[in-house]
Write a structure and sequence with these properties.
There is one protein chain. By secondary structure, this protein is an all-alpha fold. It folds into 2 domains: 89 residues, Helix-hairpin-Helix base-excision DNA repair enzymes (C-terminal) (Endonuclease Iii, domain 2), CATH 1.10.1670.10; 101 residues, Endonuclease III, domain 1. The chain is built from 12 helices and no strands. It starts with a helix and ends with a helix.
């Protein structure tokens, strides 16, 4: 895709979603745990369950001592809750041993149980203000491919393609903008292409318009 189109996409997304922002905790440990919980789960559900979890376990120290069954009871309404309960307790033990400090590098974060590049990028971007990469969730993955920004079949492949095209100062914000667009118009099923302000420069919309 031409650079002119990239600039136009960013400009239009920013114009239509000026307040786009992932609603995540400011506390770095809470941010880390919430992002782990968010995998394959709805955003509103994750936010509500995270608040309930942190009301009972306010710190890494507290959560590290929790019984897995108790954590499971709190988060059981999100996907893969048994695995996630085990993972966040394991992560909490590591963070607690590190005096409550959440790692601030991609290398360190990826060593934590249940942490992949998406989670690490969100923690680095939102928690530390570091633009190490682009967090690719289902919205970013889907929309990037539809727009023709990437043909990659993996999240990391899409991330690498995006990093070559998106200005670094937009890496963190880009995820917020794409999530907002995915929720409102570019839905997984039945995207509202006829109402989309990106339709004229979107490969998916142009192809569907011809069919």
């Amino acid at each position: 895709m031409r650079r002119k189109n990239i600039e136009q996409i960013l400009k239009l997304l920013h114009r239509h979603y000026p307040d786009a922002d992932i609603l995540l905790p400011k506390n770095r440990f809470h941010l880390l745990v919430s992002t782990i919980l968010s995998a394959q789960s709805r955003d509103k559900q994750t936010i509500a369950i995270s608040k309930k979890l942190f009301k009972r376990y306010k710190s890494a120290e507290a959560l590290s001592k929790a019984k897995q069954s108790d954590v499971e009871d709190i988060i059981r309404n999100i996907g893969l809750y048994k695995t996630k309960a085990k993972r966040i307790i394991e992560v909490s033990k590591i963070i607690a041993k590190n005096h409550g400090r959440v790692p601030d590098s991609m290398e360190e974060l990826l060593k934590l149980p249940g942490v992949g590049r998406k989670t690490a990028n969100i923690v680095l971007g939102k928690g530390f203000g570091k633009s190490h990469g682009i967090a690719v969730d289902t919205h970013v993955f889907r929309i990037s491919r539809r727009l023709g920004l990437s043909n990659a079949s993996t999240s990391y492949g899409v991330e690498k393609d995006l990093m070559k095209q998106i200005p670094k100062n937009y890496w963190v914000k880009f995820t917020d903008l794409m999530i907002a667009h995915g929720r409102k118009l570019c839905r997984s099923k039945k995207p509202l292409c006829n109402k989309c302000f990106l339709a004229e420069i979107c490969d998916y919309a142009r192809t569907n318009a011809k069919n």
